[in-house]
Amino acid sequence: MIRIDKNSKGTVAAVCIFCVAVTAAVFAFVPSWWIRVPVLLLMAWFCRWQILFHSVPRRNPVSSDTDIVAVSDGRIVICDEVEEKVYLNRRVKMISIYMDFWDYHVNWWPVNGTVERTQYFPGKHALAFKPKASEENEHTCTVVKAASGAEVLFKQLAGGFARRIVCYAKPGLEVRGGEQCGIIKFGSRIDIFLPLAAEVLVKVGDVVTGSETILARL
After folding, report:
1. How do residues 36-81 score in pLDDT, each as one tens digit?
2. How far from 64 is each of 4, 108, 127, CA to CA, in Å?
């Protein structure tokens, strides 16, 4: 059974109503089956895509105090050392996952721990795979303090088409790696910032599965 993200049920309902309305209008006012059939197939495909896009897939989540699990599905576009100047204020390792239109856009907690801070930042909607998107695009930052005491920061970044970021974080919330933490609607990116001592287990170009692929080890 398909489970729709709790914050996306309205979106999915609106899409389905729109598709039904368009199909009904075409069948009512356009006599040609050469137009009716393609429109019916297109609307059915679009409705199915949106249902899957906003659904929460069944996974075998990794829940660990030390293993950093992929926050989203997608492809690794950045693995590097950077200076994080907003929250951690130190040099860290950064892993970025880019999600395209065909990936599930549900997000998962990266590690067992406690939410220390979370904050929303308005910004641009440049293409999410660009390096500067991490600083300039609309995003939500969340810091999770793992059981070991290590701070793990992740950013949910809006992309060129993303217009809504949903994050369930709140300070003091106890979280488990691999459980859902939110969703980003349409093309977008996740940036994860880890201590320099973390052992990174992925590389640029790798395709990862949210809540299952281990990105790094604290």
Report:
1. 999 999 999 999 988 888 888 888 888 889 999 999 999 999 999 9
2. 26, 13, 32
Element (H, E) at 191: strand 188-194
The pLDDT tens digits for 137-169 are: 678 899 999 988 899 999 998 765 555 788 899
Rounded to whole angstroms, how far apart are CA atoms 105 and 36? 32
Cα angle 93-68-76, degrees, rounded to a multiple of 5: 60
Residues 177, 179, 180: CA angle, nearest 5 degrees: 130
The helix (H) or strand (E) run that includes residue 14 is helix 9-29
The H-or-E segment that residue 91 falls in is strand 90-99
Query: pLDDT tens-digit profile of 166-204?
Result: 889 999 999 999 999 988 876 678 999 999 999 999 999
Task: State the catalytic residues.
Answer: 188
Beta bridge partners of 95: 79, 192
For domain 67-217, the CATH superfamily is Glucose Permease (Domain IIA) (2.70.70.10)
Task: Using alpha carbons, select from 174, 107, 110, 175 the residue that is nearest to residue 139.
Answer: 107
Half-sphere exposure of 103 (CA within 13 A, CB side): 24
DSSP string, 24-35: HHHHHH---HHH
